[in-house]
Amino acid sequence: MPRAKCAYTKCSTVTREKSIYCSDNCRKAAARANYKKRNAPVNKSTSAAVEQGMTAEEFEQSANRLLTSRVPLPPVPDKILATQVADMGFDTDQHAVACFSDYHFGGKVDPEVTGGIGGYDVATARYRLTDWRDGVLRFTQMMQTTLPVPVLHILALGDDMEGNGHMYGTQAMEMELSPYFQFLGFVADMTDILVSLQSRFEKIHIYKVFGNHGRMSGSKKDAFDPDNIELMAWQTIAARCELAAPGKFTFDISSAFFQVVDILGYSFYLRHGDGVNLNATYTGVVENKLAMNSIVGQVLNYMVLGHHHTASEREEEIDGDVLSNGCFVGPSLLALKMRRPRANRPSQEMFFVHPEKGITHRHRIHLATTEEVRNITTVKRWSE
Ligand SMILES: [Zn+2]
Ligand SMILES: [Zn+2]
């Protein structure tokens, strides 16, 4: 039963049922025409057209012709060849974005218990925090030699402190400080760090979402989201920063588990990351982001989360990335003993955002050497 006209534009015969071309010849002719169209030279001065159904000799001749009549690639633009910064054309301001998460201040990873893979305590934490501060300033300094970077955005993604000691049965045995002293130490150090970061920026914006380690209850089932010690700590930090450098900082401290933030026209979906599928860490976060796209009714450009303690980035959509931040702790008993044991160097993500290109320069600020996180003494009893 004929249905419609043949889809080959030079033919007007009606087609057979379930067919879009009236004949095989029309199908082949349409494919050939599409191929020619796709490969049509953009530059009209070239005659580089590849014919279908050539003999080997014809193909060789045609290839030779193509090589001799090859149109050169466009030259490297002058601004890229420039040696003086003024001639390089870097005339767009960019903003710096630094992730901060999974500091777990007050927590302790005993190297004796992890077999030498990983160790963490209050002194180590504070040195790594210092390294983070210096890393953020150093990468900014590097950028600022070529273009203006007036603003820093800090994505504070949670787990600033180790917690209440009752999250799981043995948590208190893996802690050096109780919650009150975690709070005091964290607030004092973080205020100090933020005040020193402002030396390189006109403005610093901080966006805070809470982590699971700040909850006040033992079980997560008993937790009411905003009753989280991290939110109290950041409220205090905000007040102290305002006193130290009036008007220099803004703080968005979220009572909800997420925040969507606009940075130079790009949407950043921030959440700590607990509750996102732990059994399928990589695919789980992507699924979660796709679901969130439909909940909020837009393609969120960047989902940024902590919690997994493993730095990574996955681009699975047009204009949609998932970025997981690293941690300060490095390998812990929890990470090492899981079904898929893992260990990595503690790190934090940092990047720069351009108003038309989105995230440009990506940096991973490493906070410890390999030797610091892997110091295994292998026992050998067979040596004699
Ligand atoms: Zn964490
Ligand atoms: Zn967490």
Shape: elongated
Bound molecules: zinc ion
From the alpha carbons, calculate the radius of gyration and give it in angstroms. 29 Å
Number of helices: 10
Mean pLDDT: 90
**Secondary-structure arrangement, i.e. CATH architecture:** 4-Layer Sandwich
What is the CATH third-level topology name?
Purple Acid Phosphatase, chain A, domain 2
Spans where pLDDT lies below 50 across 5 or more residues: 43-51
Helix content: 25-40%
What is the string of SSEs from the N terminus onward? HHHEHHEHEHEEEHEEEHEEH
Q: What would CATH call the class? A: Alpha Beta
Structural class: alpha/beta
Binned strand content: 15-25%
Largest sheet: 6 strands, mixed
Provide the CATH superfamily. Metallo-dependent phosphatases
Give the strand order of the largest sheet, numbering strands 1, 2, ... along the chain.
4-3-2-1-10-11
Structurally, how many domains make up the residues? 1
Terminal CA distance reads 90 Å
Total strand segments: 11
Structure description:
There is one protein chain. The chain has 384 residues and is α/β, with parallel strands linked by helices. It is 31% helix and 17% strand. The protein has a six-stranded mixed β-sheet with strand order 4-3-2-1-10-11, with helices on one face. A five-stranded mixed β-sheet has the order 5-6-7-9-8, covered by helices on one side. A hairpin with a 2-residue loop joins strand 8 (312-317) and strand 9 (320-324). Helix 5 runs parallel beside helix 6 and helix 6 (179-197) runs parallel beside helix 7 (229-244). Bound molecules: zinc ion (ZN) (2 copies). The site of one zinc ion has 7 residues, from loops.
